[in-house]
TrEMBL record:
A Pfam family the protein falls into: HutD
PANTHER family: PROTEIN VES (PTHR37943)
Listed name of the protein: HutD family protein
SUPFAM superfamilies the UniProt entry points to: RmlC-like cupins
Matching Gene3D superfamilies: Jelly Rolls (2.60.120.10)
Length: 194
């Protein structure tokens, strides 16, 4: 296992693909050997972003997306014939980048965490960690993002404290077991396939 602490001051900021806002890129991976790291070379990305006004989502063909509200409440994603309810924080919704989605804010701005992956290149999972418990982890990359305040986990006999706003990136070559001890965090899991 390789564990790396990603500090909030080292995150990068980039414009949304449609230019409608700015996201904070916490961690990502691109195709090996590419010289230009852009949306076309992206394998997966874990990011946070504020949504401060209603508007359209970026069109991202070939990308699967998971999203969760981590600050504020009242977000609804509307697509033709479909609605994704994120009114309550820490509920995960899954949708494709091809969908024509427009946001609706029922109670003001929100902060969200996104986990995106190129379809067929990675399997992804996004969930909230709010109470102490054990959870199995498959081999792959796992990101523990401390949403509000510090959080504490145990993995393979070691204890890790992740400061508020920071992320612990864990790269596992074999299945393991995570013990979430305290705090509030989001767990993003990525398993490359193919």
């Amino acid at each position: 296992m390789k564990a790396t602490l990603l500090k909030s001051e080292d995150y990068t900021r980039s414009p949304w693909k449609n230019g409608g806002g700015v996201f904070t890129d916490i961690a990502d991976e691109h195709r090996p050997g590419v010289t230009t790291r852009d949306w076309d070379s992206l394998l997966w990305r874990f990011a946070s972003t504020p949504i401060v006004a209603p508007g359209p989502f970026s069109h991202m063909p070939g990308i699967d997306r998971l999203q969760m509200v981590t600050g504020g409440r009242g977000l609804v994603l509307r697509a033709p014939g479909q609605e994704f309810d994120e009114r309550e924080p820490f509920m995960t919704v899954r949708f494709t980048g091809e969908m024509e989605i427009v946001t609706e804010l029922e109670a003001g701005p929100v902060e969200v965490v996104n986990l995106m992956a190129r379809r067929g290149a990675a399997e992804i999972e996004l969930l909230a960690l709010k109470e102490p418990r054990e959870r199995p982890l498959l081999s792959g990359t796992h990101l523990i993002y401390a949403v509000s305040g510090d959080c504490c986990i145990q993995l393979e006999g070691k204890e890790y404290v992740v400061s508020s706003g920071c992320t612990l990136k864990m790269e596992l070559s074999a299945a393991s077991k995570l013990s979430f001890v305290s705090g509030l965090a989001v767990l993003g899991s990525i398993r490359l396939v193919g």
